[in-house]
Amino acid sequence: MSTAQYGIIGWPLGHSKSPLLHNWGLTACGLPGSYAAWPTEPKKLKAFVAEVRARRIKGVSVTIPHKVAVIPLLDAITDRARAVGAVNTLFWQGAALMGDNTDVAGIAAPLTPHLDRLSPALVLGAGGAARAACAALRGLGVSDLCVSARTHAKAQQLATDFQARAVDWESRAKQPWALVVNATPLGMQGRDLALSPWPEDAEGAMALAFDLVYNPVRTRFLEQAETAGAQLVSGLSMFLHQGLAQFEIWTGKRLDEQRARQLLLADMLMTGG
Ligand code: NAP
Predict the structure, then answer these.
(1) In angstroms, what is the span from residue 122 Cα to ligand 1's centroid?
(2) Ligand 1 environment, Cβ below 6 A
(3) Sequence-distant (≥ 6) Cβ neighbours of residue 116 within 8 angstroms
(4) What average pLDDT does range 4-15 have in this prediction?
(5) Which of 134, 108, 149, 113 is CA-nearest to residue 240?
(6) Catalytic: 174?
(7) CB 36 within 8 A of CB 55
(8) Looking at ligand 1, which atom is closest to the CA of residue 239?
(9) Fewer CB under 10 Å: which end of the chain, C or N?
(10) Is the pLDDT of residue 1 over 70?
(11) Nearest CA residue ID for atom 27, ligand 1
């Protein structure tokens, strides 16, 4: 029997932490196989999926910009993926190559301890991560869900899709929120590092701040929220839980959450994240 192969596709792929997490998981569970990074240009996506079928690659993580484009190349997608309109995980169900979305679980899991304190919630941004956040918050039963984005038409569309309210970008910090989720790239390593989607002169407060950005772990947005007395959830928690969910889909095994978190944190410290 050939050794199981797994990997991640995206373009550009940069320094993905997924190979670290999944290769550690395979070793920890004593499973044969390896997980690779496969940078894949958009024009090569179709050929890549044909190769997944031909080589019967066991599991693939899918990241930007392929999460929507990959859908028509698959045999079917799960209800969770349909709710978000994006796929981040390929897996086999018998002879069918399937698409799933574990970003929703990645966002929901770290919010579960705060279930009774999530409403009203504000999602900042209207891209793929914001869609996953809206699906997660709806799934957690958040009754008052709002979306704000610099391109208001996109916020309005997202709000319509999830029966939420669109809030003007200029008004996002004018009222108190139980939860604010940053689903923009502001604060990410690189040119956006010093930036935050939250204005320095915010009038409203937030009780809980969740930054989906995970590199660095401590973003400008989380610094602002901490100064304002909020509780914090880092994007590393989302990354960790979406990865644990993928591993379980592919292998049926649940990895030790604390050990996996320590592995990722140690790597972030070493690489300056
Ligand atoms: P996306 O589809 O490109 O959407 C980004 C959103 O941010 C859009 O609404 C965009 O607005 C907005 N935006 C971009 N630059 C902005 C700026 N300067 N000011 C205000 N808004 C701005 O990206 P995505 O896939 O949703 O990902 C968003 C972020 O989530 C990523 O950068 C990543 O850090 C994080 N993420 C984390 C994980 C994890 O595992 N922790 C997983 C996925 C994503 P426009 O449409 O107007 O451009």
Answers:
(1) 15
(2) 64, 103, 106, 125-130, 149-151, 154, 183-186, 188, 197, 212-214, 235, 238-239, 242
(3) none
(4) 93
(5) 108
(6) no
(7) no
(8) 40
(9) N
(10) no
(11) 129
Among the options 67, 154, 174, 253, which is catalytic?
Answer: 67
Closest-CA residue to 136 (of 214, 237, 254, 48): 237
Token pair recorded at residue 94: 């018998």
**Segment 161-192, tens digit of pLDDT:** 999 999 999 999 999 999 999 999 999 988 99
Q: Can you tell me the distance from the alpha carbon of 139 to that of 116, in angstroms, rounded to the nearest whole number?
A: 13
Give the ranges where the chain is alpha helix by DSSP (H): 18-28, 45-55, 79-84, 103-111, 128-139, 152-161, 220-227, 235-251, 257-271
Residue with tokens 């502001």: 186
